[in-house]
Amino acid sequence: xxxxxxxxxxxxxxxxxxxxxxxxxxxxxxxxxxxxxxxxxxxxxxxxxxxxxxxxxxxxxxxxxxxxxxxxxxxxxxxxxxxxxxxxxxxxxxxxxxxxxxxxxxxxxxxxxxxxxxxxxxxxxxxxxxxxxxxxxxxxxxxxxxxxxxxxxxxxxxxxxxxxxxxxxxxxxxxxxxxxxxxxxxxxxxxxxxxxxx
Length: 198
Description:
InterPro entries: Homeodomain-like_sf (IPR009057), HTH-type_TetR-like_transc_reg (IPR050109), HTH_TetR (IPR001647), MT1864/Rv1816-like_C (IPR025996), Tet_transcr_reg_TetR-rel_C_sf (IPR036271)
Radius of gyration: 20 Å
Number of domains: 2
Low-confidence stretches: none
CATH topology of the largest domain: Tetracycline Repressor, domain 2
Keywords: DNA-binding, Transcription, Transcription regulation
Pfam family, one: TetR_C_33
Number of helices: 8
Organism: Streptomyces katrae
Strand content: under 5%
Protein name: TetR/AcrR family transcriptional regulator
Number of strands: 0
């Protein structure tokens, strides 16, 4: 076989990295194990050592995406500083990831909702909501956030930042720059979450 762009190292990682690039450029329809093998200069059979089929590759991409998203959100939630600032940082981290990795995020949510999704994928998919709910519960304990089920409040928070990212991706924010829209959305969200009298 002629020498291609892939020479040695972790083929699984190389396949996932190339697959994410193809996903971004061509969508899910553009992904195939055979094409990835060709792109990396390995035999057509080589990817099957890591992914039994195309669906296994897509699931692995979704797992990788959720892992990266969860790492970003956890870092924002666990950073030093007041809880409201950390809630805002968490919201900004989500918007940034959603806008920067839109095709991957769509794949992540599709894979999580699939009837045959793995327990790992479902758990990773819920982790970001759990992180947000945990931070909201802490904010409630410190008197910053109104009473209510932290998981329900976290769902509302996510709907706000996810909706904003969706509008941005659809070029529906008109002339409002995304950072400005994000700051305003988070200000409105945190004001709504605030314990009355604060």
